[in-house]
Design goal:
The complex is a heterotrimer of chains A (about 300), B (about 550) and C (about 325).
Chain A (H helix, E strand, L loop, with lengths): L2 H26 L2 H23 L35 H37 L1 H15 L3 H12 L3 H28 L2 H8 L4 H37 L12 H8 L8 H28 L8
Chain B lengths: L1 H22 L17 E6 L14 H10 L4 E3 L6 E3 L2 E6 L5 E6 L13 H12 L8 H11 L11 E8 L2 E6 L6 H4 L10 H6 L5 E4 L3 E4 L3 H4 L7 E7 L3 E6 L12 E6 L3 H10 L4 E5 L1 H8 L4 E5 L4 E7 L9 H10 L2 H8 L4 E3 L22 H10 L6 E9 L9 H13 L3 E9 H11 L5 E7 L9 H5 L11 H12 L3 H18 L2 E7 L2 E5 L2 E2 L15 E2 L1
Parallel strand pairs in B: 1-12, 1-13, 17-18, 17-19
Antiparallel strand pairs in B: 2-3, 4-5, 5-7, 6-7, 8-9, 10-11, 11-12, 13-21, 14-21, 15-19, 15-20, 16-20, 22-23
Helix pairs in contact in B: 10-12, 16-17
Chain C lengths: L1 H28 L4 H6 L5 H10 L6 H13 L13 H36 L4 H15 L2 H15 L22 H8 L2 H38 L2 H8 L4 H39 L4 H11 L2 H29 L2 H4 L1
Classes of the chains: A mainly alpha (about 300), B alpha+beta (about 550), C mainly alpha (about 325).
Chain lengths: ~300, ~550, ~325
């Protein structure tokens, strides 16, 4: 190992770690973030242990439970009432956490991974590659997000996977721009110039210096994007582009189906609606907390 | 820090509670609607805007409804039935072989532009329809002409229509190329109502340009700004997507309309239509959803009117998809569908379980057809008899973005049927597509899986309009070839002796329910809603409903 | 400044070309076809062919694109497949409806959001600050259609205070020279119509404006907090200027920069939100138009509508950039 390499190794280690410890300390002192963690933890618990929590099979109902042509509201037996197929709404909301969280995470993962690759390439190589990729992102951004997602689902057909892809794709440009911006800023930073001057290879600079330092805004954005994704998925469901199997207990789709019963059975729309609001709120609170914790400008304040 | 977090928690909780309380305002609804309508002005909401106000060129209900108020044909239907009564023709007779029909026209009838209605005007309209060319020959434009009369004057397809003769001012003879048992009934269709020849020409009803890239563009203003008929209401104005305004025609030959003005508004959302009615923005609307009926009936300011059942909802089976070509499997489907529960729970008491593919009120209906009660065990047994291993996997399609009179919430019907089939030895894979064009296209091409949901509303009172439409030839939709059934239906259609004809249709119904090309499950009474002060509206099985007798207290 | 504007305008060209190509190709990727949409329930293979020929859908795809672009250049957006009306005519009715709604929503969110954020920052850590933080968090966490449904259910259905659907009552006669109903009512001098159309606008505007309101309040708060600690503000205070003068002349003016940016960024959100809000309130704007067009595979409307929305969006962003440059001269150089 040459001296230059040893120095480079040391620089790699040094750049990120201090930042994270401090961020975590500040995050723990932020009440909003703690509420966010509680809300999100509740939903992750529901999602993971749905079969243990839910009293009934969310897909199987009993039409004999219906009164008139629709659905009795909350009662001792069914605390959130019964839906239009005679199914227990509580069980469906619990299982719904599974779908909403899964869809949210997968679609953000899609947007984040593709966006990061594009952003990293654009930011690192610059020149015409950068121009081309960023013009492409501009074009994508010039179509309002939901319209773009609707367009993609319209082309792929309705369904869970298609929705994940559609929502993920709408998030690509945001992540691409974000990462490119961070890399451009970091490229000129002292420790990168230093690493370069001691001869650290290009790829190593990208993976060990540029990416880790550009990553904190991406994590913040990723958390907030989870919130956006859940809302967008619900929006697509509301417009009737949800999962193919209508018995799927997905919150957005549950809400869509039931708005037509708003007069006679408002609980059918309100309960999944509030489930969405609460989980989205959780991710927003965490995202905000993270932003404050990771942003040096906020250091003196929290 | 602890205090701040408590405070935020409290605020959060309060905010959510306020929202929740606001949301759960209770189910009771002491209607505050009913006001807003003054004098003789009624606002009626349809699901969409009319396409164009020219009866010859439309086939959708939202266009036909207002056209029906402004225009009249030779004959009409008695209120609330499919019985033929005189309209612009006072009497008629056919010659011995049924190929020449002579109509005596009502006298002293004028069009809304002051032009006289006479034999020449009748022939002008018939000649217009018969001589349509180019894009006018598309089924989307002239579906009913093609259904009733076949081809046009260009002779590419044979036509039932031969010529029209104005023998004198008030006598007209329509010559046909062959006898037809459904000709007179079809003349009651709104599509064959008469427009002022003067207005048709002056405002370019048949003018349009056809260019290569964008296709047909109407350039005339007849169908959008100057529709001119003889009916009890006349056109005032039409703001697309917003409102169509009609007013009473003071020189109407018969009993004049009671309302001063009649306004049609398109409101595509079901819930929005109900809410507009409750708020008093509108005084009536069509296609009431079953789950809203209770709300409307519970509101003393509102009322529900029912159309007589004249439709059928069915589960279609595609026999091209194995194993649906086997009778036992089709029987297993029929026994596996919990039709009673669906009809009892989803139609608000406004439906009955269908035994056949046409409504009981029609002649030719047979009450003694084969019946299939819900019996999941029997389904499984039938499937095992057929040598299949359970569960049998099937693809089942349903439409989205649509509400039909026979199927107000297709997804809901689908879910219940899928659940009951899953208990009967099948394993259902759900598929959906937007109603038009995807779903209908798939159903017609036969690419909508093993099973699909569909239905039909009758256009006129003839069994041919139901089972003849479905099963007279081999179709992609049902995918079977049954020459015996095709032949029986062909004979029934051309039979001129009414009693013999009825017998043939009864036989056909029995044969169909044994052969099971699909499973009919409901005849429904579609509901309309009005504010309580509206009187004089008579629902019709084929939705031909005059507003001229309607008044508001 | 002029060079900056010209350069930004030139940058529009590749974006517009890319957009038109994207929209054009996307529509061809859709399942089903426009011919089927036109014929609907009673379609046959033969009639489908006939329609495809008439609409030029049977030609090679690059020719279709070429004719498409040259038509647009001539201002010809084609004919709607379902209504058989020129797309331009429909656009002239739909676009003002959405813009009117979006402006009302913007007005609501700006007039409420900026003061709220300002007060929150001035009383940093106080009750107003915490309250507005919580409200704005909930604001951005509610799906816009769910909020729309809630508002409609409470204020229109249960309380009966406001109309449920549409832009104006059916019983009111009004000429529509501009299709901005508020303007139309003012031109006609019809106060009843003005009041009626305003009441129709309240709930949709609140539903649509709630997210921008939350965002604007948050950004205003953050921007004011940033500026408050700058040296020139301290200097101004130290000079003994009245607090109100400092607020307006120094703090507010400098905080405007991020606020203007964020308002510009809300346009895309508004257009997305409009699709859902219009659906709930049956508002006859671009949103309901495009959603219907997608369902019906109404190609000419889809092409024109999406392209138009995107172009408007791009132009608004351009305006924001220019105003940004006007406020902050440093931008012009880079």
């Amino acid at each position: 190992m040459s001296i230059a390499e040893a120095e480079a190794r040391e620089l790699q280690l040094e750049a990120p770690s201090g930042l994270w410890n401090e961020a975590w300390r500040r995050l723990r002192r932020n009440p909003g973030a703690i509420i966010g963690f509680v809300l999100v933890a509740t939903f992750v618990t529901c999602a993971l242990f749905a079969p243990l929590i839910a009293p009934e099979d969310p897909r199987v109902g009993d039409l004999a439970r219906l009164e008139g042509s629709c659905c009795p509201g909350p009662s001792a037996e069914h605390i959130f009432g019964v839906d239009q197929q005679g199914r227990d709404v509580f069980s469906r909301v619990i299982y719904g956490a599974r779908y909403s969280l899964l869809i949210g995470v997968v679609s953000v993962a899609v947007g984040l991974s593709i966006g990061m690759i594009i952003g990293a390439i654009a930011g690192y190589f610059g020149g015409w590659v950068d121009t081309l990729l960023m013009r492409l992102m501009d074009i994508m951004l010039s179509i309002p997000g939901l319209l773009l997602a609707i367009g993609i689902v319209a082309a792929l057909g309705p369904g869970l996977v298609q929705i994940m892809v559609a929502v993920g794709v709408t998030q690509i440009p945001i992540f691409a721009r974000l990462l490119r911006g961070s890399i451009l800023a970091a490229r000129e930073a002292d420790y990168v110039l230093a690493a370069r001057s001691v001869g650290v290879p290009r790829r190593a600079i990208l993976s060990s210096h540029l990416l880790p330092n550009a990553i904190s805004p991406v994590i913040v954005q990723g958390t907030l994007a989870l919130a956006t994704a859940i809302i967008e998925v619900a929006g697509l469901g509301f417009l009737g582009l949800g999962p193919q199997d209508p018995s799927t207990p997905e919150w957005g789709t549950m809400l869509t189906d039931t708005t037509r019963y708003l007069q006679t059975a408002p609980h059918l729309a309100l309960i999944p609606g509030f489930a969405i609001v609460i989980s989205v709120l959780g991710f927003n609170l965490i995202g905000d907390g993270l932003r404050e914790a990771l942003d040096p400008r906020f250091r003196g304040r929290a | 820090m602890g205090r701040t977090s408590m405070r935020i928690l409290l605020l959060l909780a309060t905010a959510l509670l306020v929202l929740a309380a606001a949301g759960c305002g209770g189910d009771d609804d002491d209607g505050d609607g009913g006001e807003g309508a003054t004098g003789g002005e009624l606002v009626f909401a349809g699901a969409s805007d009319p396409v164009v106000l020219d009866g010859a060129l439309v086939s959708d209900g939202e266009s036909l409804r207002p056209i029906d108020q402004m225009f009249e044909g030779l004959v009409s239907l008695a209120p609330g039935s499919t019985e033929i009564i005189p309209a612009l023709a006072e009497s008629w007779e056919a010659n011995a072989d049924g190929t020449a029909w002579t109509f005596r026209l009502r006298e002293n009838v004028t069009f809304h532009d002051g032009e006289p209605f006479n034999a020449e005007a009748v022939c002008f309209n018939f000649d217009r329809w018969y001589n349509f060319k180019g894009p006018f020959q598309l089924e989307s434009a002239t579906y009913y002409w093609q259904t009733v009369f076949g081809g046009f004057s260009d002779g590419e397809e044979p036509s039932l229509y031969e010529s029209c003769e104005a023998t004198d001012e008030s006598t007209v003879v329509i010559n046909l190329t062959k006898a037809s048992s459904s000709f007179l009934g079809a003349l009651a269709l709104t599509n064959f109502t008469f427009a002022s020849p003067q207005a048709l020409q002056e405002f370019g009803a048949d003018e349009g340009t056809v260019d290569e890239e964008t296709g047909f563009k109407p350039t005339g203003t007849y169908g959008t700004e100057h529709p001119t008929g003889t009916g009890p209401f006349r056109f005032v104005s039409w703001t697309r997507g917003d409102r169509l305004v009609l007013e009473r025609y003071e020189d109407y030959w018969g009993e004049k309309a009671k309302l001063d003005r009649l306004i049609f508004r398109p409101i595509s959302d079901n819930a929005a239509r109900l809410q507009a009615l409750q708020a008093g923005d509108i005084q009536g609307y069509d296609l009431v959803e079953p789950q809203d009926i209770e709300t409307i009936e519970g509101d003393e300011n509102l009322q529900v009117l029912d159309r007589p059942p004249f439709n059928v909802a069915y589960v279609g089976i595609n026999q091209k998809m194995a194993p649906m070509n086997r009778l036992e499997v089709r029987q297993a489907i029929a026994h596996g569908l919990d039709r009673q529960s669906v009809v009892d729970n989803f139609y608000a008491g406004r439906g009955e379980v269908a035994k056949a593919f046409m409504p009981p009120s029609l002649e030719g209906y047979a009450d003694d057809v084969m019946e299939y009660e819900y019996d999941p065990e029997k389904s499984k047994e039938l499937l095992r008899q057929a040598g299949l291993t359970l569960p049998v996997r099937i693809d089942f399609w349903y439409p989205t973005d649509v509400s039909r009179p026979y199927m107000p919430d297709p997804k809901r019907n689908f879910e219940a049927f899928a659940a009951s089939l899953n208990k009967a030895g099948f394993q259902v894979t759900p598929h959906s597509a937007p109603w038009s064009p995807d779903y209908l296209g798939r159903a017609q091409e036969g690419t909508a899986g093993h099973l699909h949901l569909l239905g039909w509303t009758g256009d006129y009172g003839d069994p041919d309009n139901f089972i003849g439409t479905f099963f007279q030839t081999e179709t992609g939709q049902f995918g079977f070839n049954n020459p015996e059934l095709f032949d029986l239906l062909n004979r029934a259609e051309t039979e001129t002796d009414q009693a013999a004809r009825i017998g043939l249709y009864e036989d056909a119904n029995r044969m169909i329910m044994e052969f099971l090309p699909g499973v009919p499950y409901a005849h429904t009474e579609p509901a309309l809603a009005f504010t309580a002060n509206v009187t004089g509206y008579t629902p019709s099985p084929v939705s031909l409903e005059p507003f001229s007798t309607v008044s508001m207290e | 400044m002029l060079r900056f504007v010209v350069r930004r305008l030139l940058l529009l060209v590749p974006i517009l070309v890319g957009l038109s190509l994207l929209v054009f190709l996307w529509i061809r990727a859709l399942p089903g076809g426009p011919a089927q949409a036109l014929l609907g329930e009673r379609a046959t293979a033969e009639s489908i062919e006939q329609i495809e020929e008439q609409y030029g859908l049977d030609k090679p795809i690059h020719l279709q694109y070429f004719t498409y672009v040259s038509k647009i250049a001539q201002g010809d957006l084609g004919t709607s497949v379902t209504t058989r009306r020129p797309v331009v005519d429909e656009l002239q009715q739909r676009f003002p409806a959405t813009i009117e709604l979006a402006l009302a929503a913007m007005l609501f969110s700006i007039t409420l959001g900026i003061p709220l954020g300002f007060i929150a920052a001035k009383r940093y850590g106080g009750a107003v600050d915490h309250g507005s933080l919580v409200l704005s968090l909930i604001g951005i966490s509610i799906p816009v259609f769910f909020l729309a449904i809630l508002l409609k259910y409470v204020f229109a259905v249960q309380l009966g205070l406001l109309p449920t659907v549409g832009r104006i009552s059916a019983t009111i006669d009004l000429e529509h020279p501009t299709n901005f109903y508020v303007l139309d009512a003012l031109i006609a001098g019809d106060m009843e119509a003005l009041w009626d159309t305003l009441t129709h606008m309240v709930l949709p505007a609140i539903a649509l404006g709630s997210i921008p309101l939350a965002v604007i309040a948050r950004i205003t708060r953050a921007a004011v907090l940033d500026v408050q600690n700058e040296d020139y503000v301290r200097t101004a205070r130290a000079k003994g200027l009245a607090p109100r003068v400092v607020d307006v002349r120094h703090i507010f003016r400098n905080a405007m920069l991020p606020i203007v940016t964020i308002i510009g960024l809300q346009v895309g959100l508004l257009l997305s939100g409009a699709v859902l809000t219009e659906t709930v309130f049956a508002w006859p704007g671009m949103g309901t138009w495009l959603v219907d067009a997608i369902e019906q595979r109404n190609y000419p409307v889809l092409q024109a509508g999406i392209l138009f929305v995107a172009v408007v969006f791009v132009l608004v962003n351009l305006l924001v950039d220019i105003s940004y440059a006007l406020i902050n001269p440093r931008i012009r150089v880079s």
